[in-house]
Specification:
The protein is about 50% helix and about 10% strand. It has about 120 residues and is of the alpha+beta class. A 3-stranded antiparallel beta sheet has the order 1-3-2.
Length: about 120
C-alpha cells in the first residue's frame, strides 16, 4: 500500500509472534498460576521461599493457620504443579521449593528474566 503522495504506507502493527510464548509454555504457566489461586498456597510458597529450606507439614500448619490435613492438601496441589518438591524423612514429609520454580514464575511476568 502507498500513501496519496506515493510513499509506502507505514505498517499498522509490528508482528508480536516472535516475542510471544509458545502454547505449551502458556499451558505450563497457567498450571503454575492456577496452583497459586488460593491464598493459603501463596502463603506456603512465600514461607518456603523465606526459610530457604525444607519444612515439615507440622511446621507449616501454625504458620498458615489451617489444619494439618488442609495444609497437606495444599502442598499436594503445589507438588502436582511442580512448584514444590517432597522429601521423605522417616515417617515425615518435608517440602521445599523446587529449584527454579520462582524463576519460572518470574520469567512469565518478565520475559527478560533469565536471558543472558
Amino acid at each position: 500500500m502507498t500513501t496519496s503522495n506515493g510513499a509506502p504506507a507505514p505498517a499498522c502493527c509490528a508482528p508480536l509472534s516472535d516475542r510471544a510464548m509458545s502454547h505449551d509454555d502458556a499451558d505450563r504457566a497457567a498450571q503454575l498460576f492456577r496452583s497459586l489461586g488460593d491464598p493459603a498456597r501463596v502463603r506456603i510458597v512465600n514461607i518456603l521461599a523465606s526459610v530457604g529450606e525444607a519444612a515439615c507439614v507440622c511446621d507449616l500448619t501454625p504458620e498458615v493457620g489451617l489444619s494439618q490435613a488442609t495444609v497437606s492438601f495444599h502442598l499436594k496441589k503445589l507438588l502436582e504443579a511442580g512448584l514444590v518438591q517432597r522429601e521423605k524423612r522417616g515417617k515425615w514429609a518435608h517440602y521445599s521449593l523446587r529449584s527454579g520454580a520462582l524463576a519460572e514464575l518470574a520469567a512469565v511476568l518478565d520475559p527478560g528474566v533469565g536471558r543472558g
